[in-house]
User: What shape does this take?
Amino acid sequence: MRTGFFAVTLSALLTLGLALPGAAETDKKGFNTYQDLNRFVEVFEKIRAEYVEEVDDGEVLEAAINGMLRSLDPHSSYMGPETFQNMQVQTEGEYGGLGMEVTMEDGVVKVVSPIDDTPAERAGIQGGDYITHIDGEAITDTSLTKAVRRMRGPIGQSVIITVVRQGVDEPFDVEIVRDKIRLASVDYRVERGNIGYIRISSFNEKTTPGLKDALSGLKADLGDDLAGVVLDLRDNPGGLLNEAISVSDMFLDQGEIVSTRGRRPSDRARWNATPGDRADGVPVVVLVNPFSASASEIVAGALQDHRRATILGERTFGKGTVQTVLRLDRESAIRLTTGRYYTPSNRSIQERGIEPDIEVLQTETSGRRVRREEDLAGHLVNENGPLKPAAAEALKDAAGDGEAPDGADTGGDDTTDAPDAEATGADEPHTDDRDADAPAGDQVAAETAPEDSEPVDRQLERALDLLQGTEVALSNMDAARIGSGRSTDQAAQD
Assistant: This one.
């Protein structure tokens, strides 16, 4: 069926070529649209007839479409059915699955832990269990990505997994009915008794409600003792633009958050904060690193420009472009770069990223080079010009030599295997839901490998020290005012 579809598409393409505005004319480089479309079909027919092995028409044409998009920039791409479903899961924040975190150990899928109140937990799956078969088919020596795909699927459909458990002599089968699993993108806790820590791992449709719950929970736990908030955006590859705007708005009371500019003047848009700071003005420190990208950079840039937060960590990825998902049919779409975004002070982050107010290098990244937007082949250059060679090298030298770490976009499809997403079926994103995604890579989520815990988090420790120091400084100022007989309001008026 797919071959037939592409054959019809080719025929339509040639017909439309005759009707395209200026199709018979040549462009600035001397290309004639109709002639080149005809040449494309001729090449395709020669491949079908002469290639050493028989080819799949659909695969060849799909590769040609993707190549056309990839020639534009690293973030434009074609999304077939599987990739399109992956994208929907990432943006919706939920999928049909079993509900467990898994990793790969010696070629076998190992359960790290079942997620609370999920089918896996209710079925008695335990941390440390090994899964050897899914529906009777062995999954040993397969990739974790493929194994997870087998676990996910339509809600209400059962799956049988074969479990090997320590202390049990024989493997045994467990039948589990898939249910809706929600990907939590926000987590929070209290640090050092009076500082709130909020981690945002991605910007999907669950992020804003999750952040509201986190702030409400911290206020309920600490009340007036809340001394500050650490907002952790490290290793956050981005997500939905409207979620980045909403998150920024929660910490701002007024002013611009971000603006976008496209090819035409009509493509320009601007978003402003609404009255009300949900953090009640407490000091905020935002943690960033080279894998904080796109939507993360929007938030960090807005809070930095408004001096609402101190940005701490390392220079961010530098993806300052917005991708719009344009659906082709019910199962496929293209992700097309349609604009650039700018911080409130009119900074373009493309290539350059967000420079932290306080640079703190983590031990594990200080000795190797990481890949950022400026390292990607075909990336769009910053309007103010590319990074000067000396400046670029200086920035790279700050991270040292090495290879691109997991999660960095190396020019591949932003959503393919990112990771093992399965769809629940979503409507086409509206204009305000444009994907501000950056390098997707393998992101930690339910039924994927968890992040390794860090023995010492230097950046977090510095942020906590900073917030505790701010609290002490404010307390000393209050004591001085009281000793001088002046009220806080009087001192503020001086």
About this structure: The chain is about 30% helix and 20% strand. Residues 458-484 form the longest helix (27 residues). The two ends are 77 Å apart (CA to CA).
